[in-house]
Amino acid sequence: MQWGQIKNLFIVCFLILNIFLVKQLIDRQEEDMATIPITSREEQLEFNISGLDNLSDENYTAPLIHTQNYNYNLYAQKELEQLPNQQIVVIDDFYLFSRFDEPVAFDFLDEDNQLSDIILNGDRYTYWDEVEQARVLVYFQSIEHPVFYNSNAILLIHLNSEGHITQYEQTQLRVVGGADEERSLIKQYDAVYRLYHHLNALRTGDTITNASLGYHNLVSLPNGEQLLNPTWNIQVNNSQHHFVNAIEGHNYPQNDQFFLENIISLVDLLESEHDDNLKFYHLEEEREDLLSKITQTLLGVHQNIVEVDKE
């Protein structure tokens, strides 16, 4: 046999050997990969998000709630006339502005003190937050549970430098129609799961610090009616709030400008007032003076919020 043929035979043999060895290597890698466990989406959530043990495993139900703007002049005229030491103006029937004759000392930590003693239906509101730079306490109306971020169901209480109440603005919703059927709600864990996997609203390392049930506006109708939907409030890192529709599972977008927008709306309402849409209670000074004082307080709040946002 000639040397050239022998050389070609060796080359072919080495080529076959290399192919065999490569196949063995690939098979070994595939076997090794098969031994690596696949992490489930639940395990990913539990590994990356803390505080899941703060979630309740209870099965909850809640109804949809049909509401309408509360007409102060129609439903609460006598009650407003009995509120002490304050001058009140109601604009367009639905927006109440009140300024105390003298700042009122009120211990908000004392359970014996009732907001309803000085503020109409004050017991129907739940404390939410403080806009510290403007010394404003924010309360959300409760209808079984808090109504989150709804400009028609809010109470803003202004404090002076000594922590005494000087004035407040208030809106309310009233329930209309018959009771709706109870709806089954997604579990709190499912709400967090959707926030993490489907909505990308949570980040690795976040901690769930609380979860609570409330309501969020689902539909607004031209006649002032609103359909409120059960909503999970998922609190993250003790400060952030994510709101998840507790029936359908989608989230409601966050509005970081909610309080500022409400202040602007109230100022616009005061500045566009006319005789036909004003109703005063306990008026003891010139109406223009009262409206001016209320407006200036709101403008001061607006300026303080804007200045802090710029920093």
UniProtKB/TrEMBL annotation:
Which Gene3D superfamilies would you find in this protein's record?
A: YycH protein, domain 3-like
An annotated GO cellular component of this protein is: membrane
Report the domain of life of the source organism. Answer: Bacteria
InterPro entries xref list: YycI-like
What residues does the Regulatory protein YycH-like domain cover? 48-247
Name this protein carries in UniProt: Regulatory protein YycH-like domain-containing protein
User: Which species does the entry assign this protein to?
Assistant: Amphibacillus xylanus (strain ATCC 51415 / DSM 6626 / JCM 7361 / LMG 17667 / NBRC 15112 / Ep01)
Lineage summary: Bacteria, Bacillati, Bacillota, Bacilli, Bacillales
